Amino acid sequence: MYGPPVDLSFKDISNVTGALSVQPRSGLRPLNTNSKRKYLSRSLRLSNNSITDLVGLQYTLGYFLAEPSQLGWLDLSFNKITCIDPVLCELRELRVLYLHGNGIWNLSEVDKLGELQYLHTITLHGNAIETSKGYRNHVISAMPQLRKMDFSTVTREERVLANVWHHCTNRGRNTKETLQ
User: Fold this and answer.
1) What distances in angstroms separate CA 32 from CA 27, 62, 68, one per listed residue?
2) Cα separation of 61 and 21, whole Å?
3) How far is CA 129 from the centre of its chain?
4) Using CA atoms in the order 101, 107, 113, 118, what is the torsion angle rounded to 10 degrees?
5) Which residues pair with 17 in a beta bridge?
6) pTM score, whole prediction
7) What phi, psi does 178 have (nearest 5°)?
8) Full DSSP string of the chain
9) Which of 18, 76, 79, 82 has the fewest CB atoms within 10 Å, counting from its CB?
10) pLDDT tens profile 7-64
11) How large is the angle between the packed helices 156-179 and 135-142, nearest 10 degrees?
12) 122 Cβ partners below 8 Å, 6+ apart?
């Protein structure tokens, strides 16, 4: 029933709604549409553009996809995104999210994505947060359901370490707050 991704990558789009004026790239498998000319896909590629924020994402999803609430895979890699917009948390069926090669600099931005219970794959490498101390532990503790991060499997041992790291880090913060 669901076909290949709607591919809007390499379209020189500077904002999400800019996608409304371009045609998806054609791939090896043709994109099928319903009677309303909406694509029968659960995947959207917006990679390799100049997108800075996600204003209008829900509208854009509704414009292209027959069932926007069923979006399972979103590729926003290689753009100019600096923070994780709460609109991503509205994508309740999201399973795969590519954010690598952007400008996300605050590690706590990742915490917002903990609400996405089906999210099992994320990429964040190539962002400034990658150089933060405890980067991988923080991401894994914020999203315990992850199976892959930055194209690497999240192991059982990493989950245990991330959990310990999270408790140690939070204990230190709580102690500091108590002392102040």
Assistant:
1) 12, 16, 15
2) 13
3) 14
4) 70
5) none
6) 0.91
7) -65, -40
8) --BS-EE-TTS--SSGGGGGGSPPBP-SSPPPB-TTS-B-BSEEE--SS-----TTHHHHHHHHBSSGGG--EEE--SS---S--GGGGG-TT--EEE--SS----GGGGGGGGG-TT--EEE-TTSGGGGSTTHHHHHHHH-TT-SEETTEEPPHHHHHHHHHHHHHHHHHHHHHHHH-
9) 82
10) 999 999 999 999 999 999 988 888 999 999 999 999 999 999 999 999 999 999 999 9
11) 90
12) 96, 97, 98, 99, 113, 139, 143, 146, 148, 149, 150
Q: In angstroms, rounded to a whole number, what is the distance separating the alpha carbons of residues 114 and 112?
A: 6
> What's the token pair of residue 91?
């994508």
Token look-up 């959207």 returns: 44
In DSSP terms, 67 is beta-bridged to none
119's tokens: 């999210």
What are the tokens at 129?
């947060």
Q: Which residue has the tokens 């999400």?
A: 16
